[in-house]
Amino acid sequence: MTLSLLLLLAFILFMIPVVAVSRNRIYLLIRSLLPSSFLIALILILDKIIFNIDISKYVGLASSSMFSFITNSLPELSAAESLHICAHLTYAFLYLTVFLITSFITRLTFIGTNPNIKEKHGLLKSISSRTLLFLIIYPFLFVFLAEIRRIIPFQDGLLKPLFDVIYSYGANAL
Amino acid sequence: MNENLKFYLLAEQLGWDCSEYAYKRRDDIYKSASYSILKANMSEVSKHISKRSQYIQEEYKKLDEEPLTLKDFATREIRCNYLALHSFPEYYINPLTIEKDYQGGISSLGDLIFQIDSKEMTLNSLLLSNDYSFEKKQQAIDDQLEDYLSDLDEMTDHAIEAIKENSLNTSLERKEGRRTIVSEIIFIILNILFAFIYIYPNIYFRECMYSLSSDKILSYLSLIYPIFMLLYDISYILYFSYRSRKYQSYNYAKRFIKKNSSKVYQSNRITKEALKDYILNSIKQGYRLQNDIKSFSLLSTGYIDYKKVLDYKDIKKSPTMKAFRTVYNILSAISILLSLLTFVLYIISIVLKKGI
């Protein structure tokens, strides 16, 4: 098993709901996932692309005590790597928490669109909403696993060059 | 009615007991031409949702009741003739509740039978007739359309009732709702546990995973556990995706009705008024109605998909749904057991500081 294969399986797994779920459920999921994806995307963009202010370092410092039980078990991790992993585990935690809260609120207020009425440009809307749903789930998982692959017990596999672009440390746990 | 029957009927009215004669002739109705026609039309009648088709079905069942008197017998015969005549689609089809995939003999609203001055005639004949004034035609059309509307409103009542019956107020639905929430929680917990087992750097577990050893249970589990987790995730996603697709009309109606039930009745009336305007326009323009029987149907294009809402319980019992549920239940049970077993052995390996 390699991380690339795991991500391929995850790709297939995420494609099932994207293709099979009903139109209203897609809208519900998008509404529930958008705030968390937006928040994490904003942090990652601010961190890596725009200002290069290394937010991850500060987030890692703040959350290191929460995830120290994981990072302390790998003595070969440098302090910087530990902070990096703590930061990304915090982002994952944040993503899930915001999703669960938004999902709860959305379920109470959401009505959706009438499935009996064919919308104008229905196919186009369906394809774009399904693509959007995929884009607000899968890339985050991809980046998350690439960022923390230092502690994952799998080799990189085929996608190693891509992982290195996302996070330049090699995956050589154990 | 033959002369013999008339005689016995009169005798019965005068106080004679003719029940024996009625009993002897009880099966005559089944041999009549009108009964044969009615019987042949019944399968088509039962497919349509309208008060008139419902009435025909109920009355058809009553024909099997044994007549105790000759009066009952005669009434039954008259009723059978009436039902046979009204068992044709032009009499019972409601254009507001006709199915979108209807492929029967009626193609136009103009073929439907309307009543004016106690006379029955097709709508097209009524529209083009010069015997009645515009106002009279308008009144007759409005009366009939009000009947259609009340039919639709009644169906809306039934659908709302069905939704309320199936809503979280009933113990069955509460149970179903609880089961869905529990399934979601189990799904999240099992996946977090799975991620934890692989992300947390337990050196003993990883040793068992990398160097597979036949005497270590963790070695077997490190192979079987991810496979079953993958299968469980697929079955969960497939089951709930299929469910969301099958229940989407019902779920939408449920959510919509919670806040906007008055809008549904409003939409019914708006459609009836649109139909009326359409018909009246054809009188003014003087043309026959053609190929428009399904144009005003709200059966599955309104706020409520009546068919799916009223068939909600049948979807639950459908073989595909049962198959998905069974596979999901089996895989979730196996995954829960495997997760627990792996987690316990995982913890033990940390405590004992060796692979098990």
Describe the structure.
The complex is a heterodimer of chains A (174) and B (356). With 174 residues, chain A is an all-alpha fold. Helices cover 72% and strands 0% of the residues of chain A. Chain B is 71% helix and 2% strand. In chain B, strands 1-2 form a two-stranded antiparallel sheet. The chains are: A mainly alpha (174), B mainly alpha (356). Chains A and B meet through helix 1 and helix 2 of A and helix 11, helix 12 and helix 13 of B.
**What ranges of chain A have pLDDT less than 50 throughout 5 or more consecutive residues?**
170-174
Task: List the secondary-structure elements of chain A in sequence, H or E.
Answer: HHHHHHH
- Major β-sheet profile of chain A: none
The proportion of strand residues of chain A reads under 5%
Mean pLDDT of chain A: 87
Oligomer category: heterodimer
Report on the biggest sheet of chain B: 2 strands, antiparallel
Class by alpha and beta content of chain B: mainly alpha
Task: Give a quick summary of the entry.
Chain A is an all-alpha fold. Chain A is built from seven helices and no strands. The radius of gyration of chain A is 18 Å and the shape is globular.
Strand-helix topology:
The complex is a heterodimer of chains A (174) and B (356).
Chain A: H1 3-20, H2 23-50, H3 55-71, H4 79-109, H5 122-135, H6 138-147, H7 160-166
Chain B: H1 3-13, H2 19-24, H3 28-31, H4 33-45, H5 51-62, H6 70-85, H7 89-92, E1 113-116, E2 119-122, H8 123-128, H9 134-166, H10 171-199, H11 203-210, H12 217-246, H13 248-285, H14 306-310, H15 312-316, H16 319-352
Antiparallel strand pairs in B: 1-2
Features:
heterodimer; A: 174 residues; mainly alpha; 7 helices; 72% helix; disordered C terminus; B: 356 residues; two-stranded antiparallel ribbon; 71% helix; 2% strand
